[in-house]
Amino acid sequence: MSQDLSIVQLMLNASWVVQAVVVLLVLVSVISWAAIFRKVFTLKRVNRHNEDFEKEFWSGTNLNDLYSAAAQSARHGGPMERIFASGMREYHKLRERRITDAGALLDGARRAMRASFQREIDVLETNLSFLGTVGSVAPYVGLFGTVWGIMHAFTGLAALAQVTLATVAPGIAEALVATAIGLFAAIPAVVAYNRFATDIDRVANRMETFMEEFSNILHRNLGQQPSQATPSGH
């Protein structure tokens, strides 16, 4: 492509509407890529923290000791650790109120873990809807710029006595750039959205499985040691 038909030159000669559309799409693309990289690092960190906590949990560590450690590192730990801490915290509060019914204790711990689980999922899904919106809307925004650019080009050609390919090509090319940039913004966002949605579902399933297993451990401890104030092990 010659310098006269370079993308930069085409954009400089384009109408202000097409220029605005292109600037908007480039800005959205940059923001979506930043969100993608943040989400990649976040999910890696979450999986690492969850794996480390599961190893510690199933190593036979006393639940009270594990709860103390989880309570101290709540901000720096992983979602699974915070879910565990929420369940144990509610369990302790109910025992402090001298509630001895095993069903009430177990239900309270489960509700606390479920609420914590939902908060963790909400955090993991941050910016996910933005990526979905970019993936679905960006092509149409680019198409709008293209349609407007073509209309502008043909309006300008109406005043010419003779129309050739050389006079038509620049206007059509600058209009098509908007669609190309719209696709450039949309395709990574769609791919990332689908990938992250799948990864978050896996994390959610893993945490739900942990909640059920921990609930079973609490249930066994309550059945075997009804007189103790706290569960001692698993």
TrEMBL record:
UniProt-listed Pfam families: MotA_ExbB (PF01618)
Entry keywords, A to Z: Cell cycle, Cell division, Cell inner membrane, Cell membrane, Membrane, Transmembrane, Transmembrane helix
Main location: membrane
All residue ranges annotated as the MotA/TolQ/ExbB proton channel domain in the record: 79-208
Compartment(s) where it occurs, according to its Swiss-Prot or TrEMBL record: Cell inner membrane; Cell membrane
GO biological-process terms attached to the record: bacteriocin transport; cell division; protein import
GO CC annotations, alphabetized: plasma membrane
Entry annotated with the keyword Transport: no
Matches recorded under InterPro entries: ExbB/TolQ_transport, MotA_ExbB_proton_chnl, Tol-Pal_TolQ
Membrane disposition: Multi-pass membrane protein
Record has Zinc as a keyword: no
Parts of the chain that traverse the membrane: 16-37, 128-151, 171-193
Family as reported in the entry's similarity comment: Belongs to the ExbB/TolQ family.
HAMAP family listed in its UniProt record: TolQ
Assembly and binders: The Tol-Pal system is composed of five core proteins: the inner membrane proteins TolA, TolQ and TolR, the periplasmic protein TolB and the outer membrane protein Pal. They form a network linking the inner and outer membranes and the peptidoglycan layer.
Function description: Part of the Tol-Pal system, which plays a role in outer membrane invagination during cell division and is important for maintaining outer membrane integrity.
Protein name: Tol-Pal system protein TolQ
Organism: Hydrogenophaga pseudoflava
Lineage: Bacteria, Pseudomonadati, Pseudomonadota, Betaproteobacteria, Burkholderiales
